[in-house]
Design goal:
Blueprint lengths: L2 H14 L6 H15 L9 H4 L9 H6 L10 H14 L2 H13 L6 H14 L2 H13 L7 H13 L3 H12 L10 H13 L3 H10 L9 H13 L3 H13 L6 H14 L2 H13 L6 H13 L3 H13 L6 H13 L3 H13 L6 H13 L3 H13 L6 H14 L2 H13 L6 H13 L3 H13 L6 H13 L3 H13 L6 H13 L3 H12 L9 H13 L3 H13 L6 H13 L8 H13 L3 H13 L6 H11 L2 H16 L1
Pfam families: PPR (PF01535), PPR_1 (PF12854), PPR_2 (PF13041)
Organism: Trapa natans
Family: Belongs to the PPR family. P subfamily.
């Protein structure tokens, strides 16, 4: 359809049905109808058909049809309609041609039209185009920029996650003498938000303090943003002080304000101040909402106060505040981690009774807890209820079930579950395969584990480092060091980086077969891997045990020094390795008291309190009394001076009575 045919219906309407409308207004109305009726992309016609050197965005007949009448300015509103339409459709190529035509015809550009384009750029994820157009507004299109267009572009950059670019753009515009734009409240809120996301909280505070001088009063959003930024960098006291400041300035906090501070206090574990803040919240007339309760419940669970968390859940329900999946999930996870899976099941049952949809994450947590506590019958009952409720398990929940069945020794059932997973169109993950492999190695069925591994390869499943680690460990424990090395080299060939467990497993395999030097070579390889793979206390203990077994005591002592110099503290296994060698390899045998005393004092001197206390526990269990200096350091680090003085005072009172 050509332009003549496109405008023909409107000519008919114009000649018959719009005779009472003034001619100039009539043409403009017809053009607007055309813009609304046709898709904007249809309004673009090629130069091949119309003999023009360039592609024109709009048919020439439509522009030429417009006539001037009185004060009517031909075509401006039509151009504005086109800008809106092309922006909404995302046709930025044609939109640019419209802008260029407006410039050639000296049309009047409106800031609101540019803001419409900016919004389209945000939707399309094109922040740089928005910045470019912002700078072109005055120089190229003679359109005055105000803080509205500035805020629009700033918001686009932040929405795209380009915080650095947002800060750069803000200061470039605000500090420019040519642009002459003064930021308003929205501008300040946006830049403070960006700075806080970048962790530049001090700079955000500086901007916040500049606001009154620039006739901008902070609002609730400003305070909340800054409080959240301070809490995230663990400056809770400063965030709480802002609460008093905002009220002095006449800005009243909302539930969101209190929730931000409560979240910071609960993550810090300061439940006493959190409780006082809730009281303050009620005094200010702010009622707790779901976020408030969820934050407090999460804080209580982190501190292990699970019974109080359950009480708060009941209070939440009594307050007509409906718990959600996050509320229940937080409590159930806390109970499971504390070894109270049965209580977690009760909360799960409460969810079902109240008609809440239990998600896969909650089921996974409960089942995992029950299997870990070896409550297999209860776990299978929960699984059955889950299936009967219509919940379709995903690979994570299937993995928990398979791991539990393997722990119980039900290997055949676990393998049946594996077939069920594949039949349901679910790709088994690394955890599922690893659980099955580990279970067969533990049962001594190495051949079956190798069969599962081969099946994985046939199904084009790409095993990760964890799968390789399980296989290498199993083969090393079976004495199949050669097969383990084949898998190790295969893992390296695939570009997978061995982790600490993989290295420790292979080092153990070599040391166990008498190849201690090869184990030490692998240890050095760990340290010089890129990135380096840090050995843990288990790795060190494997090598220490191998050196002591072959009588290399001096070398073992040197290796212990390397271990401590690298920041790895010895554990009870380390102590037992040396106590055994001192007892069996020396004549007369040594009890190891002097060795452990020196170890404890060295750890205390390095301020490695936890490590020192673990060695002290070993000494007490072995009836090896530590030296007085070790006791003194232990009391000094464990007890607060005031509490010690109070305890001594109470003992003295009891003695003189």
């Amino acid at each position: 359809m050509g332009p003549a045919e496109m405008i023909m219906p409107f000519r008919i309407i114009g000649s018959k049905g719009m005779s009472h409308v003034p001619q100039g207004m009539k043409k403009n109305m017809l053009f607007s109808i055309l813009c609304e009726f046709y898709n904007p992309s249809v309004l673009c016609f090629s130069s091949a058909r119309y003999g023009s050197d360039t592609e024109t965005a709009i048919p020439e007949e439509i522009f030429e049809a417009a006539s001037e009448s009185g004060s009517y300015k031909r075509g401006d509103s039509s151009f504005y309609a086109l800008i809106d339409n092309f922006s909404n459709s995302g046709d930025f190529c044609t939109l640019e041609k419209v802008l260029q035509r407006m410039k050639r015809e000296n049309r009047v550009f409106l800031e609101k039209s540019f803001i419409t384009v900016f919004k389209a750029y945000r939707k399309a994820g094109l922040p740089e185009k928005a910045i470019n157009l912002f700078y072109r507004m005055v120089d190229e299109f003679q359109c005055k920029r105000t803080v509205k267009s500035f805020n629009s572009v700033l918001n686009i950059i932040i929405h795209a996650g380009l915080q650095n670019r947002a800060v750069e753009f803000y200061f470039c515009v605000v500090n420019s003498n040519d642009i002459n734009i003064t930021p308003n409240l929205l501008s300040f809120n946006l830049i403070i938000k960006s700075l806080c996301k970048m962790g530049l909280v001090d700079r955000a505070v500086e901007i916040f303090r500049e606001m009154p001088a620039k006739n901008s009063v902070p609002d609730v959003f400003t305070y909340c943003t800054l409080m959240d930024g301070l809490c995230k960098v663990h400056r809770i006291d400063e965030a709480v002080s802002l609460l008093d400041e905002m009220q002095i300035e006449g800005c009243f906090p909302t539930s969101v304000t209190f929730n931000v501070l409560l979240n910071g206090l609960c993550k810090k574990g300061d439940l006493a101040r959190a409780s006082k803040l809730v009281d303050n919240m009620f005094l200010k007339g702010c009622l707790p909402n779901e976020v408030t309760y969820n934050t407090l419940i999460h804080g209580l669970c982190l501190k292990g106060k699970l019974d109080k968390a359950i009480q708060l859940l009941k209070r939440m329900v009594d307050s007509k505040c409906i718990p959600n999946d996050i509320t229940y999930g937080t409590i159930i996870n806390g109970l499971v981690k504390a070894g109270r899976a049965d209580d977690g099941v009760q909360v799960l049952n409460d969810m079902n009774e109240r008609g809440f949809h239990v998600n896969m994450h909650i089921y996974s947590s409960v089942l995992n807890g029950l299997f870990k506590e070896e409550k297999y019958d209860e776990a299978r009952r929960v699984w059955k209820e889950m299936m009967e409720s219509g919940c379709k398990p995903n690979e994570v929940v299937y993995g928990v079930l398979m791991d539990g069945l393997c722990q119980e020794g039900r290997y055949h059932e676990a393998e049946e579950i594996l077939h069920e997973i594949t039949n349901n169109g679910i790709m088994p993950n690394a955890f599922i395969y690893s659980s099955l492999l580990r279970s067969y190695f533990r049962s001594g069925n190495c051949e079956k584990a190798l069969s599962i591994w081969e099946d994985m390869q046939n199904k084009d499943f790409a095993p990760n480092e964890f799968c390789y680690s399980v296989m290498i460990q199993g083969l090393c424990e079976e004495g199949k060091l050669e097969e383990a090395m084949i898998l190790w080299n295969d893992m390296l060939r695939r570009g997978l980086m061995p982790d600490t467990v993989s290295y420790s497993t292979l080092i153990y395999g070599h040391c166990n077969s008498g190849e201690v030097e090869k184990g030490l070579e692998l240890f050095n390889e760990m340290l010089y891997q890129d990135p380096p793979c840090q050995p843990d206390v288990i790795t060190y203990n494997i090598i220490l045990n191998a050196l002591c077994k072959r009588g290399s005591i001096a070398r073992a002592i040197d290796f212990l020094n390397i271990m401590m110099d690298r920041g790895c503290d010895p554990d009870p296994v380390t102590c037992n390795i040396f106590l055994k060698v001192l007892r069996e390899k020396f004549d007369p045998p040594k009890d190891g008291k002097e060795f452990l005393d020196e170890l404890v004092l060295r750890l205390f001197k390095s301020e490695r309190i936890h490590g020192a206390l673990r060695i002290l526990e070993v000494m007490l269990q072995k009836h090896l009394p530590p030296v007085a200096l070790a006791w003194e350091r232990a009391v000094h680090n464990l007890c607060k001076p005031r509490k010690v003085q109070t305890s001594i005072g109470r003992c003295w009172d009891c003695l003189i009575r």
